[in-house]
Amino acid sequence: MSTHDRTTADTREPRRQHAARRRLAGAALTAALVLSACSDGGGDSDDGQKTEPPAAQPQWSDWVELPSAVTPLHTAPDKVLVQRHDNQRLQVLDSAGQEKWTVPEVAMVETYQALASADDERIYVQLAEFGRPLVALSWEDGSELWRVKTEDIHKCSIGEHFQLRPPPPGMQHSDSAPLLLAYGSEDVFSGEPETDREMPESCFDGPTASFPDIPTLIGVNRANGRAAWTPVEDGLNSVVGWSNYDVTGRWFDRIVSSRGAPALVRTEAATGKTASAALGLAPHGYELGDSIFFSDMGNERFYLEPSMSDPVIVDVERWRADDEDPDAASIDVEPIAHGRTCERNLHRSSTGYGFCLQTPDSTGEPGFTGRLMAGPDGQMITQQDDSGSIPAGTYWSAPTAYEPSEGFGSEGEGYLGLDPVVPREGQSPVIALPGENDAIQALDLLTGEEVWSYSSDQASGPGYSAAYVPGVDEVVFAHGSWIVGVSARDGTEKWTADLSDVDGGAIFHAGTAIAVKHGNGDAGRLRMVVTE
Predict the structure, then answer these.
(1) What share of the chain is helix, strand, coil (3-state, %, to 5)?
(2) Closest to 256 (Cα-Cα) out of 183, 202, 194, 207
(3) How far apart are CA 297 and CA 333, in angstroms?
(4) Handedness of CA 185, 186, 188, 193 (dihedral sign)
C-alpha cells in the first residue's frame, strides 16, 4: 500500500492484530461461501426456497490521481459532477476518475461560480451563450433533455439579465422546489451583462407604458422546463437588491426598491405566491439608495444590515398581498445594540437542517456560537417561553484552537460549505468543528454539548475542512498533512491518508465524493462512495 492511503491499521500494532483477525475471518467466510456454492442446493436454503444474495454495501473507491484539482459539485450513483480548477470547465467523472462527458460552457458568476444544479435525475446548467438558456442534461451521457430561455416563458424578459438560483441544500431532490431564475441581484451579479438586446415594443403598451412591469423571478419545472408558476413582476424602474432563500428553504426573499424606498419581497418557491412589506428604515439611519444585506431567520423575522447604518431586526407582523394597498403591511423594527447576531450567518446542511454559526472571523473573538433553527421538513424548530413560541433552540458556544488572527474566516466559509452536519435518527443532529484540545469536536447542534471528539498524535493542532459523507456514514477532515475518516456516530477512526509527499492539500466535497488539491501544484486526487 502506498503512502497516499496509509491506514492506521498499517502503522499501529493493535490495528495490525485487528486486521489479521479480519483477514482470518474473511478467509473463513470465503471458504464457507465456496462450500455453499458447490453444494447440491446451490442458491437454495435447506427448505428448498431461493435465498437472496446479500445487498451490496456502500464503500470507498480507491484514490484516483487527476491532472487538475477539482471541486465536486453534485453526485449521483458512481458518478460525480466536478469543476476543474485549471479551466473552470464542468465534467462528469466515474468512480475511476475517467471522464464520461464534458458539460457545454456554463455561465459563471465572478469567474468561478458555475451556474449549475443537479438532482438524482438530471443536471441543470445555465449556458454561456446567446439568451443564457437553462438546459437539463442526462447524468448518463450529457444528452439534452430540455432547453428553455426566459423569453419562452415571458416575452418581456432578457435571459442575460437572469441567474440560476439553485434550491438550498436539503431541497435538491424535492419535487416542490422549482429551479429559480432571478433578475440579476447584488449577490449573484458581477456587473451589467454585455447585451444589446431590448424588450419587444409590445412590452411598453398599456397604462404603464413608460415603466412597464417586467418579470424579475421565474420558476421552472425541473421535469419539463416549463413555467412552474406565473412569473413575479416588478416595475421597470425598480432596483432588485440582495436576495436569498430563508433558513427553511421554503421562501425566496429579495430586497426590491422603488424610487429608493426598499421593501422585503418574499415568494414561496413551490407556488410563486408573493407578498411584500415596505421597510420604512429612515428613522433608523437608512439613506435612500443604500444597499442592504439581509438574512431570513424564519418565523417572519429578518436580520437587516444596511451598508451605511447599524443593523436591525425586522419582524413582519403582516404581509401585503399583490392586490392590497401598499400600506397594508405592518412591521416592527428593533435596533441591534450588540452588533451582528448569529443569524447573520445562516446555513443549511445537505440533510436539510437550518442553523446559524458564528466563526472566530465573523466575531473577532475565539470560539464558535451556534443555534439550530429549522428541521429537514422545512419547519422551524421552536421552544416555549413566557411570550409564546420563539425560533429555534438556544444559543450555544464552544471553544476552538483557531484564533481570529490565523485567518480562519477565509477557511471558515469554505469549511462550512463542506457540510459538517451529521443527522441522527430520533435525535438532533451534530456538527463537526475544529476542537480546542482535540482535532475535531462533534457537538449537538441543538444544545452545543459534545457528543464525541477525535484526537491523534499524527499531527498537531485542530482539524479543518470537515464534511459528512453519507453512505459510509463518516466525517472526513484534514489534520496537518493527513486526511482522516472517522465514524459519524462515535468518532472512531476508519482510515487515514498521508499527503505529506504532496504538501498536504485542501479538501473539496459534495455528496458522496471528496477531492483534494495538492499543496505543491495544480494536480489533485478524488475518491467517492460506490456500491459494488
Answers:
(1) 15, 40, 45
(2) 183
(3) 14
(4) positive
What is the pLDDT at residue 174? Answer: 60
Burial class (CB in 10 A: 0-12, 13-18, 19+), 278: middle
The distance between the two most distant Cα atoms of the chain, rounded to a whole number of Å, is: 88
Which grid coordinates are listed for 419? 457540510
Q: Are 255 and 231 in contact (CB under 8 A)?
A: no
Q: What angle do CA 132, 134, 265 make, to 5 degrees?
A: 90
Q: CB of 469 within 8 A of CB of 514? A: yes
**Alpha-carbon distances, residue 306 vs 161, 282, 293 (angstroms):** 24, 11, 6
pTM of the model: 0.84
User: What is the residue type of 124?
Assistant: Y
- The dihedral built from the CA positions of residue 30, 35, 36 and 42, taken in this order, carries a sign that is positive
Local structure of 167: helix, strand or coil: coil
Q: Tell me the one-letter amino acid at 54.
A: P
Q: What is the arithmetic mean of pLDDT over 133-142?
A: 97
Q: 347: phi > 0 → left, psi -120 to 50 → alpha, else beta; which?
A: beta
Q: What is the rounded CA–CA span in Å between residue 256 and residue 22?
A: 63
Report the 10 Å Cβ neighbour count for 360.
21
Residue-averaged pLDDT of the chain: 81
Looking at the chain, the whole-number percentage of residues with pLDDT higher than 70 is: 79
Say which residue, 400 or 94, is predicted with more confidence: 94
Please give the residue that has the higher pLDDT: either 188 or 439: 439
Q: At 485, list the grid cell.
A: 475518516
Span 305-331, mean pLDDT? 88
The whole-number average pLDDT for the span 320-344 is 83
What is the DSSP secondary structure assignment for residue 140, as one 8-state letter? Answer: T
Pairwise CA distance, residues 487 & 493, whole Å: 6
Rounded to 5°, the CA angle 145-147-152 comes to 145
Hey, what's the cell of 236? 421597470
**pLDDT for the residue numbered 48:** 61
Distance in angstroms (rounded) separating the CA atoms of residues 280 and 264 = 11
